[in-house]
Amino acid sequence: MALNSIPTKDQIKAVPKVLLHDHLDGGLRPQTIIDIAQEIGYDLLPTHDAGELAMWFREACDSGSLVRYLETFSHTIAVMQRREDIVRVARECALDLARDGVVYAEVRGAPELFTLKGLTMSDVVEATIEGFELGTKDAKNEGFTIIVRSLLCGMRQNNRSQEVAELVVKYRDRGVVGFDIAGPEDGFPPSDQKDAFDHLRKEDAHFTIHAGEAYGIPSIWEAIQLCGAERLGHGVRIIDDIDFSGATPKLGRLASYVRDRRIPLELCPTSNLQTGAAASYAEHPIGKLAQLRFRVTLNTDNRLMSQTSMSFEMEEAVKAFNWNFAELQRVTINAMKSAFIPYPERLEIIEKVIKPGYEKISSGT
To answer: Any signal peptide, and if so, which residues (predicted)?
Structure first.
């Protein structure tokens, strides 16, 4: 059967993909950063050569230095303070994803980060939505079909999550589909933002929570049991609640709950390697979690900082775990089932785009 065959690099590029965890300020084109920096007089970039800048971002994030890692975002945030620049970045994001075969994406950003030069958070949201719409049209003109929706993040170390949650409700019929909290896990538990999550639930709004990335099981437990997370941003540390010492893996109470409830894990392997969750792709927990039938999804996190794409993540998973077409299709359908758009729209993409796409490409027709 064709779906049981191992895809080639070209076939991986062509299959339909779904992306749930991607940061807008972590996916800029290097040349765009340079262009905007020159326009606004921002002179702190380490280089003005696009190739060298791309390599600098990757090396800074691979360095193991938190100072250097955070510095990378200081540059991208600095060039996203004007409305037209946010529109440009979002527009290019949608087009870049479409060119990589992504048919549905939820891209997240924290509006408060882009208000340093006078924009309001509503201005930021509207510019982002406009950019995604323009990029979707650009993609269509190139023969690609993509739907891009926005997730709004509150920063867990700050106190503006309630405002952001209210923006999610305000713009939920205009391209915003959910909420998230981002920023440092350690010392800033999800329960600190519980009022924002209570507001979202009262308004029947969707949300995911960054949890179980840098911090462990307690972060995941709070996100789910105290805050009501529908998805886990990363969630990779759920592996700590599974005992692999015996012949058969034994799931702890929380791991069982996450699997039984089909709570989606927004796993980002390449990013996790940079932050120390695993020493190599082959050792990343996504392989074992997929075998145990958790609702695993595959994501990019920060395409610029990790020099990654959905195609690259799939290529690495195929090499590391010998995944075939069927397994790539499974994580893609997992992601589509877990999206924050209405069920009929999710089902239509699965039945009319994802399944036919995989069947066609795996069969070579």
So the answer is: none
- What is the band of 184 on the pLDDT scale with cuts at 50, 70, 90? confident
| Contact status, residue 193 vs residue 213, Cβ threshold 8 Å | no
Torsion angles phi and psi, residue 173, rounded to 5: -100, 10
The pLDDT, as a whole number, for residue 16 is: 98
Read off the amino acid at residue 231: R
CA gap 93, 100 in Å, rounded: 11
Q: Of these residues, 92, 166, 213, 316, which one is catalytic?
A: 213
Domain residue extents for the chain: 2-27+95-363, 29-79
Question: Would you identify the CATH topology of the domain 2-27+95-363?
Answer: TIM Barrel (3.20.20)
The residue written with tokens 């005992």 in the block is: 243
For 326, residues 6+ apart whose C-beta sits below 8 A from its C-beta are 3, 4
DSSP for 125-141, please give it.
Answer: HHHHHHHHHHHHHHHHH
CA atoms within 13 A on the CB side of 330: 15
In Å, what is the CA distance from 270 to each residue of 199, 221, 233, 296, 307? 34, 24, 14, 15, 9
Could you report the per-residue pLDDT of 114-127, keeping only the tens digit for each?
A: 999 999 999 999 99
Handedness of CA 286, 205, 95, 13 (dihedral sign): positive
The Cα 198–Cα 7 span in angstroms is 44
| Burial class, 288, CB count within 10 angstroms (exposed 0-12 / middle 13-18 / buried 19+) | middle
348: phi then psi, degrees, rounded to nearest 5: -65, -40
Please state at what angle helix 30-40 crosses helix 50-62, rounded to 10 degrees.
Answer: 110
Q: Is 351 annotated as catalytic?
A: no
pTM of the full predicted structure?
Answer: 0.97
Read off the DSSP letter of residue 224: I
Checking if the pLDDT of 352 tops 80, the result is: yes
The one-letter code for the residue type at 39 is E
Nearest to 267 by CA among 212, 198, 192: 212
SS3 of 307-344: CCCHHHHHHHHHHHHCCCHHHHHHHHHHHHHCCCCCHH
